[in-house]
Amino acid sequence: MVSINNLQFSYSKKATILDQLHLELDAGKIVGVLGKNGAGKSTFFKLMSGLLQPKKGTIDILGENPFSRYPSFLSKLFFVPEEFELPPIPIRTFITSTSKFYPRFDHRLVYELLEKFDLEDNVNLKGLSYGQKKKVIIAFALATKAELILMDEPTNGLDIPSKDIFRKIMAGHFEEDQLIMISTHQVKDIDTIIDHLIVLDNGGVIYNESIFDLTQKYDFLKVQQLKVSDTLYAEPILGGYKTIAPKQEQEDTQVDLELFFNALINDYKKFI
């Protein structure tokens, strides 16, 4: 599905954003892509969608070079950027005119998702708030059934009930031949829907594993007192600490993605 080798990109000679990045991903995953501000998450998605050209290295997605922007490639990809513009037309007109570019588009699904987001299809996009437009583009993206869907900060602009709806529709409308990648700073918005984690830092991928593997390797616990010898990482909370420790519990513990991300940024070599 996705094969990236020795990828390098910079906006200027002085600031390299991505450097010698390698990544292999198969279909059948919902992937969370995390990183600090400036780590290159948005740039990475633009490179994967062909909006930017690598300085060095190769990107192969579904057997094609994204930067060639062939219709055969674009019909299999949908990119939801953090900032976007929609035309001043009714939602139904946008769906009718744009869905033609996606051979697997599910018209029943898009209207089902709009209803869940409490949006009428006769409303003009021009009059919608940023959050409402975000709901439209998310619904449309999932309805394309594209083999690769990239979402950059999809929950920005959504209120708390809408974020809950987002999680439910993401979990319920996913095909095994699809790969969905979600970049976000709002880790708690996606921690229950992703099954794979990628972390970018220092220009490359510092972590790339399934959530299942995390549960088999580590315990995520809340304790009153720290046992330094058994603790890989800890953060203070009211009444004690949140900790990551090598797996000892018989039952799997709930992965704390935010805690794990902070641990990786602090010292990722402990976890590879």
Automatic annotation (TrEMBL):
Pfam families: ABC_tran (PF00005)
Keyword Translocase on entry: no
Organism superkingdom: Bacteria
Keywords (A to Z) from UniProt: ATP-binding, Nucleotide-binding, Transport
Residue intervals passing through the bilayer: none
Name of the molecule in the record: ABC transporter ATP-binding protein
Chain ranges of the ABC transporter domain: 2-227
GO molecular function per UniProt: ATP binding; ATP hydrolysis activity
PROSITE patterns: ABC_TRANSPORTER_2
CDD domains the record matches: ABC_DR_subfamily_A
